[in-house]
Design a protein that fits this description.
Elements lengths: L6 E2 L9 H5 L5 E4 L2 E4 L9 H5 L5 E2 L13 E6 L1 H4 L5 H12 L5 E4 L1 H13 L7 E2 L4 H10 L13 H12 L6 E7 L2 H4 L15 E4 H9 L13 H5 L3 H4 L5 E5 L1 H12 L8 E5 L15 H12 L11 H4 L13 H17 L13 H9 L9 H11 L1
Parallel strand pairs: 5-6, 5-8, 7-11, 8-9, 10-11
Antiparallel strand pairs: 1-4, 2-3
Helix pairs in contact: 5-7, 15-16
Length: 393
């Protein structure tokens, strides 16, 4: 099961509980004055991190120290980072700055993103609309909240994983190869062996752009690495450019994504062939680990790709495709689920229904589920306790 990349730093937390209110899937709660992140609920969307102004919640990846553990190292750079550059020359300067951190090779991921776009538009399925598996946040959200749509997910690997598998096949003569992925948002950090233990990934380390860019900045202006950018690769992570394709519905922002999934769940979007859903506002260029302005990044894309001849990356089929997405098995029978639902509703009637989060849960319904599961009790509700004390007086 996918791990949560969100970490709690006790010394910075001010117990404001903004993170609890911000979490769209109620994965964040508070117990004994400590924030708890439920791994089985968390989608790694990063909204709790954005809501925490005191850095009580963070998402961190590997460090550059790990470069020394390999004979040959490769750094994967997403188009979301490249789009922060105002010109191709500036992008080539950026890639050279990254290489000077100690990498043997720096790879532009835009052709691999282009491959995902090409394959998803050509994908044949009876389950319309097909949903592109570009972001693990969307996939995790579907598997936990919209299971009826699981068969609509296109079973492709993520672009960085496709690139890592492709490079492994090409670099067999380089000794021990270490592949590092630059990550623009919290959800990308989980797709690596370190630090989050995704052992089936060909990516060794996930690096946070927010952590590494201060080091990259010191290397700027020291040379250029020639690039051949892929316009389709930038289109794959930009909703405005995706809208150029007929019968494609593209949306950015978590709230929009949830709204579209709800419509798709009830079969109201069958006129579209493909759904491109990007949880970050302004698409991947709006990732919370990026520097700069997502609006300006979008404006940079035409100048970066206007004269480019770069095209989608041709890779082996086994690099692109993965096993079908499957829902986690729920061993309860239908009758057991209905009984649980009945008990939750009974407890919910006893709770005040204010969704105040004073108990540490985002909503009273989540609190009711925890009570029925045996993890909490009615005495944990602060409002009910206050009412009881008033009655005693």
């Amino acid at each position: 099961m996918m791990e949560s990349v969100v970490a709690y730093t006790l010394e910075r937390c001010v117990k404001c509980m903004k993170c609890i209110q911000a979490c769209p899937v109620s994965a964040v709660s508070m117990e004994n004055n400590r924030i708890i992140v439920a791994h089985e609920r968390c989608t790694n969307c990063g909204r709790c991190i954005d809501a925490c102004h005191s850095q009580g919640l963070v998402a961190q990846g590997s460090t550059l120290v790990d470069i020394a553990n390999y004979d040959y190292t490769v750094c994967l750079v997403p188009p979301a980072l490249t789009s922060a550059c105002r010109s191709k020359e500036e992008a080539e300067d950026l890639f050279n700055g990254i290489k000077l951190l100690g990498f043997d090779e720096v790879v532009d991921l835009s052709p691999y993103y282009g491959t995902v776009l090409r394959e998803s538009l050509a994908y044949q399925t009876e389950n319309r609309p097909a949903i592109v598996s570009m972001c693990s946040v969307v996939n995790r959200l579907i598997k936990t909240e919209y299971q009826v749509l699981i068969d609509h997910l296109i079973p492709m690997n993520y672009p960085a994983e496709i690139a890592a598998r492709d490079l492994r096949m090409k670099l067999t003569d380089k000794g021990t190869v270490g592949i590092f992925n630059m990550c623009e948002c919290a959800s990308r950090l989980v797709h690596a062996k370190y630090p989050y233990g995704t052992l089936d990934s060909e990516i060794d380390h996930a690096l946070s752009i927010a952590d590494t860019f201060p080091l990259i900045r010191k290397n700027l202006g020291k040379g250029r690495q020639k690039l051949n950018l892929c316009r389709d690769g930038f289109a794959a992570m930009d909703t405005a450019m995706l809208g150029e394709h007929p019968r494609v519905l593209a949306a950015d922002g978590y709230d929009k994504v949830q709204n579209i999934l709800e419509l798709a769940e009830f079969g109201r979007l069958k006129e579209f062939d493909v759904l491109y859903l990007l949880p970050c506002f302004n698409g991947c260029s709006g990732g919370q680990l990026l520097f700069g302005n997502g609006y300006l990044s979008h404006q940079n894309i035409p100048s970066l790709t206007e004269k480019e001849t770069g095209c989608c990356q041709d890779v082996a089929e086994e690099c692109i495709w993965r096993d079908s997405f499957m829902a986690e098995e729920d061993q309860r029978s239908f009758m057991e689920k209905m009984e649980f639902f009945r008990k939750v509703n009974e407890v919910l009637e006893k709770l005040p229904g204010y969704d105040c989060s004073a108990c540490g849960m985002r909503t009273c319904r989540i609190m009711a589920e925890e009570i029925v599961s045996g993890n909490r009790s009615l005495s944990d509700c602060h409002i009910l306790n206050s009412a009881s004390r008033e009655d005693v007086k």
